[in-house]
Amino acid sequence: MRPLTPIDWPQIKESVTGLPIGSSILTYDSIESTNDLAKHYLESGSDEGLLIFAEQQTQGRGRLGRQWVSLPGLGMYFSFILRPELSPEKLPLLTLMAGLALVSTISAYCPQNTKVKWPNDVLIYGKKVCGILCELCTSGSKPGIVVGIGINVNHTQDHFPTEIKSLATSIALEKSDSINRTELLSSLILSLNREYLSLQSEGGESRLLKNWSKHTNLWGRHVSLTKAGTVYSGKATRLDSFGNLIIRDESGQETAFNGGEVSFRKDSNF
Question: Would you tell me how many other CB atoms lie within 10 Å of the CB of residue 175?
Fold first, then answer.
């Protein structure tokens, strides 16, 4: 693989001039959590679009309180502030928006079998390459959303803890070459802006749901969804207008879920 190089921040900032996401960028060598710092700025009244990037997080986290391993110089770990004109029940659409931007960007590097997994993961050949953590912040004078993204970019198998080696991958592993993080991040921020502006335009919500659905392999598959300790099983059929996952059980009854952990089932003929 080619030697790793640092991110060219002047190039990044020039490429996103005039766009909402990345309108202001703060970079750190190491902090506890980009989401936590972004929430602090949001609650202090910072404008939409502020993006916080860290080479390393010492307390990075994913959904359900899980730790996100953030090794310096290898991945991309960042959060940004949004203040969208969306009703509270439709805020989960922002997770789908980020997922669509991610899968579109990563597919340019790994076009084979790069998929979104509801609600917040991107997988390559079934292995997790990145995750999204959206958090609603209602305190402070201007409520908003913090969107956190973690991507395994130039990791090798040796960089992953033993317990996730079989579940995780990186873009470099799948492409068999190191990745220029400046080019990747610039492309991703542009894609995030494109999807965010599209979401807020006329017909944007239905367009997002349609395009997201094209990039998943969920539909028609038998899944288990775990939520608050309860496991639900059935076929994943579609998303509703709020971005909830619709699962049809053996009796034909459909239920909408606004969160949970999805796994594929191989032990059923249903």
Answer: 15
